[in-house]
Amino acid sequence: MKLTIGVTGHRDLVEDERPALESRVRHHVDYLTKTFPDLELELLTALAEGADRLVASVAVELGIPIIAVLPLAPVDYERDFESPESLAEFRYLLSKAGQTIQLPDIAGHSENNRDNQYAQLGVFISNHCEVLLALWDGKTSAALGGTADVVHYHVTGVMEGYEGDLSPARLLADNENDLVHHIVCSRDRPGGSPAEGLLPLETAWFSSRNNGERTAEMPEGYRLQLRRMERFVRDWQEKQSVIRTQSSSLLTGKPDFEMPSGVQQTDSLFQAADGLAVHYQQRVNSSLRAIHILAVMMGLVFLVYSEFDGPGYMLLAFLGLFSAGVIIHIIGNAHEWHRKYLDYRILAEGLRVQLYWNLSGVVDTESAGFAYDNFLQTQDVDLGWIRHVMRQASMSRARGQAPDQAWVKWVIDEWVGEKEKGRGQLAYYSRKQLHNTSRFRRTQMLGNLCLWAGIALAILLYALGTDGDGEQRRTLLVLMGVLPLIAGIWDAYSHKKAEKELIKQYGFMSRVFGKARALLDNSADISFQRQVLKALGQAALDEGAEWLLMHRERPLEHGRL
């Protein structure tokens, strides 16, 4: 897993400032390396003259992998570098890049459209990095796709004059990758000093939040995102055997077609997220059961002690049971079992959609944007790390080349599936709906049985009055208290697991996948089938976000059953 630094900056840097600018870049890299040691850094750059190459040279020196993003075919791009020295430097740095991405031609080859290609470049770098490193004078500019335009787009989602795709979802969303690290620089031209209020070589962090307030340290919300991505990496490394046991590839039994780029990486990420989600789900469920059983035992000990004038050690037993529940709660919170289960599950489902969309050609191959631009954007900023992980595979997907159409049928069979054959998500949601319905009915029945048994004992005690020996009466009193307690705690356990709500969600998704299957079976039009798969994926992403919100409201707690 990588922490991607995108670069934007001026071409006409002042030569006297270059050593200090290089020092600031090294300091920035050192800060990220020390703050997030489990995230490998990588650089996303166009290798243009000036700032891009300055940062790329530092990356080569420090051994940071480079991904070169070219706005044009190399032969056309090289026309921008007039001197032999500049051309040689470009080719040298390009040879050091571990990956080269050439963006598709969205506007033809005329000189009038060249700026639009550079604007597309800025959009791509902005959408596929966690931190935008800007060597910028801080001034606005009318140049389409220039440094000021890219910074403005990164923070606002707006780039006026750009003819490519811009997502409306970004305009109002609480975006997670709008973080800029600004190194102020001058420009080697008349009036090239920085904007008023800025000094050459000063540094600051800013984003769209808090009115663009500039801070010396990375804002805590963004640091939290990257720490959670780092924890995912650490869990992935430490629990390889768990992942192999609990998860399997989505590509098992795939046909012998050419694999679109990025799919294998998405599948590896899916297996890690899915296996870890199952692992932490088991931890959460075991903890829930233990805490609720302890609550029943506490109630039983209290009733026995109060009715039978039990010995003092029963009070110690009561406190011991309570302490055991507290310890389980503390351990679960310390290891973030509940948070990890939810986050990893929603990540796995997002990656599932991402993989099948990429295989079937649903994602626009001409797009420079991030294809999943509204997934989880209405949620808390600390969930942004999930979209950062999805960005890693999105960056590698093929652009300008659609995958083999034959993948569409395989995706339909593997993803959508058939209920009768027990395949795909259609069979999964149908099966889970039946299972949860049966379990919820059993819960309701046993809960009602315990409740009414307690009521019956109360009636019996009233009917007996003072008859019967005291020992029997106290036993019935204990049972009368314990049975409704069991009913209440059983209902609380069902509520914690959201059994009733899950039945509705599984039923809804079963109907969605069923309708999608019917539409897909009744059409041989590949374009229409891709539209259906796109709508289906969006429904799955939306439902996943709702599932996450529902379960976040039911954390692992002790003392609030």
Write the layout of secondary structure elements.
Blueprint (H helix, E strand, L loop, with lengths): L1 E8 L8 H18 L4 E6 L5 H12 L3 E5 L3 H4 L6 H13 L2 E4 L11 H14 L3 E6 L10 H10 L12 H4 L7 E5 L18 E4 L13 H19 L1 H7 L16 H46 L4 H22 L2 H24 L23 H11 L11 H11 L7 H41 L5 H27 L2 H23 L4 H27 L9
Parallel strand pairs: 1-2, 1-5, 2-3, 3-4, 5-6
Antiparallel strand pairs: 6-7
Short characterization:
The chain is of the alpha/beta class and 561 residues long. The protein is 59% helix and 7% strand.
Question: Features of this protein?
Answer:
561 residues; alpha/beta; 7 strands
Folded structure, characterized:
The chain has 561 residues and is α/β, with parallel strands linked by helices. It is 59% helix and 7% strand. It is built from 18 helices and seven strands. The chain has a seven-stranded mixed β-sheet with strand order 4-3-2-1-5-6-7, with helices on both faces. Helix 2 (51-62) links the parallel strand 2 and strand 3. Helix 2 (51-62) packs across helix 4, helix 10 (263-308) packs antiparallel against helix 16 (470-496) and helix 12 (337-360) packs antiparallel against helix 18 (526-552). The longest helix has 46 residues, at 263-308. It is elongated and about 105 Å long. The two termini are 39 Å apart.
